[in-house]
From TrEMBL:
<keyword id="KW-0464">Manganese</keyword>
<keyword id="KW-0560">Oxidoreductase</keyword>
<dbReference type="InterPro" id="IPR011829">
    <property type="entry name" value="TTC_DH"/>
</dbReference>
<comment type="similarity">
    <text>Belongs to the isocitrate and isopropylmalate dehydrogenases family.</text>
</comment>
<keyword id="KW-0456">Lyase</keyword>
<dbReference type="InterPro" id="IPR050501">
    <property type="entry name" value="ICDH/IPMDH"/>
</dbReference>
<dbReference type="GO" id="GO:0009027">
    <property type="term" value="F:tartrate dehydrogenase activity"/>
</dbReference>
<dbReference type="Pfam" id="PF00180">
    <property type="entry name" value="Iso_dh"/>
</dbReference>
<dbReference type="InterPro" id="IPR019818">
    <property type="entry name" value="IsoCit/isopropylmalate_DH_CS"/>
</dbReference>
<protein>
    <recommendedName>
        <fullName>D-malate dehydrogenase (decarboxylating)</fullName>
        <ecNumber>1.1.1.83</ecNumber>
    </recommendedName>
</protein>
<keyword id="KW-0479">Metal-binding</keyword>
<feature type="domain" description="Isopropylmalate dehydrogenase-like">
    <location>
        <begin position="5"/>
        <end position="345"/>
    </location>
</feature>
<dbReference type="GO" id="GO:0046553">
    <property type="term" value="F:D-malate dehydrogenase (decarboxylating) (NAD+) activity"/>
</dbReference>
<dbReference type="InterPro" id="IPR024084">
    <property type="entry name" value="IsoPropMal-DH-like_dom"/>
</dbReference>
<dbReference type="GO" id="GO:0050319">
    <property type="term" value="F:tartrate decarboxylase activity"/>
</dbReference>
<keyword id="KW-0520">NAD</keyword>
């Protein structure tokens, strides 16, 4: 019996509506599999927790999470209770940083039955591998002078170690997919870090002779996500470029409510974290309108992470069967509730 201990953090808002959906689906899958079991331990860390305790998680929160096999997170943030920079940095970003989740992985795929905002979306199925620990998002820099003399300097950090790590991760994934990696660059405008990025990409690619490669400037690449998303397989990008690309990826899928993500700890020292792309969606909270597919697809990424590739593929098939049957929430044009969509997915899994 393979037993997986999962730390579950619903967080705020619709996190409490979609995390239970994801847990139920994973439990159903474990039952079908027979040799697999999930045990969820729920942590109440959230903005409400902050109001009571003055912090988003206890001081030893990370120690509590460390022994788990993975973290399954909903969403963090409730502007009515706590400013975003406190809530997100006190929980979500703290886990990503301290647990060295140096890779952020976000697939974007045209789900059958879901209407993309693209007029002619073709059958795209791409995966962005984003460097998640450095790059443009560094706290190195500073400000000097006031008023019209004011100057702000923000440094981007590109280490060989982190750059290579993200690229190798992308090549390994491409080897299991359609054998193609695109590098997001901007070496025509950014004259130190991006030529360095290109050099490392060339070096790493020589270790993967069977994988096709190309390099695209980020501006053109973002445009191609809209005009020809079907041409991409795996894309490797720096922190900022990947952040922007993945939002475009979520947009062309049809709703942020279906977009999944994984924050991967590559060195195996800490658990990885699986969370949908969307936030706490305060505008629809408590109404049964939250799309559970982002969280459930995130659960599929967790299955892949644990080597349960076949089960993960089955789950994605069932998600698409459900959308094809028109069982969908309002954000993707349906009229069903969170619970109805979840139950339909569970029902279909059980009848596999
Ligand atoms: P959001 O993603 O919560 O909502 C943006 C829009 O998408 C809203 O119209 C919402 O109703 C819709 N939406 C989101 N999830 C949905 C779902 N599952 N089904 C259907 N529709 C869905 O982003 P927003 O409004 O900018 O942020 C709200 C709060 O969430 C803020 O406190 C923000 O900081 C936080 N946030 C947290 C994230 C995280 O935990 N990873 C990511 C993004 C935002
Ligand atoms: Mg973003």
């Amino acid at each position: 019996m393979k037993k997986l201990n999962i730390a579950s953090i619903p967080g705020d808002g619709v996190g409490h509506e979609v995390v239970p959906s994801g847990e139920q689906v994973l439990k159903t899958i474990a039952d079908i599999h027979g040799g697999l079991a999930f045990e969820f331990t729920s942590f109440p860390w959230s903005c409400n927790y902050y109001l009571e305790h003055g912090s988003m998680m206890p001081e030893n929160g990370l120690d509590q999470l460390k022994p788990f096999d993975a973290i399954f997170l909903g969403a963090v943030g409730d502007l009515n209770l706590v400013p975003d920079h406190i809530s997100l940095w006190g929980l979500l970003i703290k886990i990503r940083r301290e647990f060295e989740q140096s890779i952020n992985m976000r697939p974007a795929k045209l789900l059958k039955g879901v209407t993309s905002p693209l007029a002619n979306p073709k059958d795209f199925d791409l995966l962005v591998v984003r460097e998640n620990s450095e790059g443009e998002y560094s706290s190195i820099g500073g400000k000097i002078h006031q008023g019209e003399d004011e100057v702000a300097i923000q440094n981007a950090v590109f280490s060989r170690k982190a750059t290579e790590r993200a690229m190798r991760f992308a090549f390994e994934l491409a080897g299991k997919r359609r054998q193609h990696v695109t590098s997001a660059t901007k070496s025509n405008g950014i004259v130190y870090s991006m030529p360095f990025w290109d050099d490392v990409f060339k070096e790493v690619s020589t270790d993967y002779p069977s994988i096709q490669t190309d390099s695209q400037h980020i501006d053109a690449l973002a445009a191609f996500f809209v005009t020809q998303p079907e041409r991409f397989d795996v894309i490797v990008a720096s922190n900022l470029f990947g952040d922007i690309l993945t939002d475009v990826g979520a947009a062309i899928m049809g709703s942020i409510g279906i977009a999944p993500a994984a924050n991967i700890n590559v060195n195996g020292k800490y658990p990885s974290m699986f969370e949908p792309v969307h936030g706490s969606a305060p505008d629809i909270v408590g109404k049964g309108l939250a799309n559970p597919i982002g969280q459930i697809w995130t659960a599929k990424m967790m299955l892949d992470h644990f080597g349960e590739i076949e089960l993960g593929a089955k789950l994605l098939d069932v998600i698409e069967e459900t959308t094809t049957a028109g069982i969908m929430t309002a954000d993707i044009g349906g009229k069903h509730s969170t619970e109805e969509v979840t139950n339909e997915i569970i029902h279909r899994l059980k009848s596999l």
